[in-house]
């Protein structure tokens, strides 16, 4: 009786025209330089791509072929494969096409192994015996570990695009206190911004916050997040120059205090003057950061635009029918060429009889901080600067050109815009003016 010998059939290699049918969608995406932007955008396309699932394959190993049979075309597939996992190249075999050896199965062979030393292995071969111009792939896609676990992520090399992004931002200075409390703080400053602050540290530091830019989807209670911008006057361009940004919780002065202290350490010298709106959070932060140790202390001035705006709004609420009278009297105190202490006390005594609530407001907000807003005390080299137009102009640019009105973005999206769109734009604008390609703005 003749024995029957089963001859194993070679595996079939169906042609996969769309490689994303077998390759996991990338966490990252390379972006071209947008029109009008002087530098390349972030190599990391934010975190919205995280969460892609690995395609379900019928067998392991899974045999298939991809279009093209050149080494370059195979490396294109390898690049796509390595966008989520940095596979280790285990073997790279090249054969001379002119040897005439008929039995040789491939022109080249690439072998990659799991970076965590698991069982998974991927092999690429370009076969001579296949008539169509394809490369054959043998994919052992089963792993003996959970490659999406935190332990594996900590020991696995990050994708190349993420690695470049981390290296690009490595020299940025940061001040981080990320906790679910009022102490939340995330401040950052580029190398160029730090240099500008050191070069122009004799200028007035301007600080202001915008409150409807960042959506708080990462902290308990959904407390409002503020984006603080710290600016200087750029003597080269003639406009305001952001030298640092910080995310904090609104109405909390402690993170602002640490931010100002950090910036003073960054600049390497004591700041001469600070200008802000009349928010008490900033006032308390400046007072704690720059205590009046001597006559050469840091001055804190309030922007008169915000002073008058805040006073008028409160007067309309608490003094119906007499708000304008109180406003005009307060305005005379602001611009008084004489020491306004007695005038302010008389103002307070008069109007507290009309409205005790308004009198309490004047006492808490204005009497104890007279030196911040009275022109009589504007005695530094910046005494001609009474308003803070640079931060107001900056907020208009941010919300009109980068963040649509009424559209609060995630913190990672705002971070991406600041680091990879706005900072390069300001840096490029200064180069254009410094080299004579664009005229300077004269205020």
Number of domains: 3
Mean pLDDT: 77
Task: Enumerate how many helices there are, as a single number.
Answer: 13
* SSE string: EHEEEEHHEEHEEEHEHEHHHHHHH
Rg from C-alpha positions? 32 Å
Number of strands: 12
Residue runs with pLDDT of under 50 for 5 or more positions: 1-9, 41-50, 127-131
How can the largest sheet be summarized? 7 strands, mixed
Which of globular, elongated, flat, extended, rod-shaped describes the shape?
elongated
Strand arrangement, major sheet: 6-7-10-9-8-11-12
Structural class: alpha+beta
Approximate helicity band: 25-40%
Report the β-strand fraction as a percent range. 15-25%
Distance between the termini: 106 Å
Structure description:
This protein has helices at residues 71-81, 150-155, 160-168, 191-199, 253-267, 280-289, 304-318, 323-334, 341-354, 356-365, 370-373, 389-402, 411-434; strands at residues 62-67, 88-94, 106-113, 121-127, 134-140, 173-177, 185-189, 205-210, 225-233, 240-249, 273-276, 299-302. The protein has 443 residues and is an alpha+beta fold. The chain has three domains: 19-165, no CATH class; 176-300 and 407-443, no CATH class; 304-386, no CATH class. The strands form two sheets. It has a seven-stranded mixed sheet with strand order 6-7-10-9-8-11-12, with helices on both faces. A five-stranded antiparallel sheet has the order 1-5-4-3-2, covered by helices on one side. Helix 8 packs antiparallel against helix 9 (341-354). The termini are far apart.
């Amino acid at each position: 009786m003749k024995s029957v010998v089963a001859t194993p059939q070679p595996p079939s290699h169906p042609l996969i025209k769309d490689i994303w049918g077998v390759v996991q969608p990338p966490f990252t995406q390379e972006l071209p330089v947008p029109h009008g932007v002087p530098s390349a955008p972030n190599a990391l396309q934010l975190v919205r791509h995280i969460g892609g699932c690995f395609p379900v394959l019928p067998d392991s190993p899974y045999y298939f072929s991809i279009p093209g049979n050149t080494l370059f075309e195979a490396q294109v597939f390898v690049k796509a494969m390595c966008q989520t996992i940095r596979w280790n190249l285990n073997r790279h075999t090249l054969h001379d096409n002119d040897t005439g050896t008929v039995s040789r199965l491939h022109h080249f062979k690439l072998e990659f192994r799991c970076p965590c030393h698991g069982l998974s292995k991927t092999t690429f071969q370009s076969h001579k015996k296949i008539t169509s111009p394809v490369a054959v792939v043998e994919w052992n896609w089963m792993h003996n570990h959970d490659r999406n676990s935190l332990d594996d992520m900590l020991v696995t090399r990050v994708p190349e695009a993420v690695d470049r992004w981390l290296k690009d931002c490595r020299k940025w200075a940061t001040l981080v206190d990320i906790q679910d409390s009022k102490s939340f703080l995330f401040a950052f400053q580029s190398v160029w911004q730090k240099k500008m602050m050191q070069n122009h540290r004799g200028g007035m530091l301007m600080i202001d916050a915008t409150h409807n830019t960042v959506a708080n989807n990462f902290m308990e209670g959904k407390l409002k997040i503020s984006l603080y911008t710290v600016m200087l006057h750029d003597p080269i361009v003639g406009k305001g120059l952001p030298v640092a940004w910080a995310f904090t919780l609104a109405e909390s002065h402690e993170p602002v205090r640490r931010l100002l202290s950090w910036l003073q350490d960054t600049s390497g010298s004591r700041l001469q003057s600070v200008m802000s709106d009349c928010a008490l959070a900033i006032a308390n932060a400046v007072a704690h950061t720059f205590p009046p140790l001597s006559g050469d202390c840091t001055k804190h001035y309030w922007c008169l635009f915000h002073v008058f705006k805040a006073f008028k709004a409160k007067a309309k609420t608490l003094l119906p029918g007499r708000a304008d009278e109180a406003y005009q009297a307060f305005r005379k105190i602001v611009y008084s060429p004489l020491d306004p202490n007695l005038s302010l006390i008389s103002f307070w005594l008069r109007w507290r009889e009309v409205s005790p609530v308004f009198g309490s407001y004047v006492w808490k907000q204005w009497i104890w901080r007279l030196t911040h807003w009275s022109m009589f005390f504007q005695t530094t080299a910046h005494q001609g600067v009474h308003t803070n137009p640079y931060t107001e102009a900056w907020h208009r640019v941010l919300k009109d050109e980068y963040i649509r009105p009424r559209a609060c973005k995630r913190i990672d999206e705002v971070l991406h815009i600041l680091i990879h769109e706005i900072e390069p734009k300001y840096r490029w604008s200064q180069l254009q003016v410094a080299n004579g390609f664009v005229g300077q703005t004269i205020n």
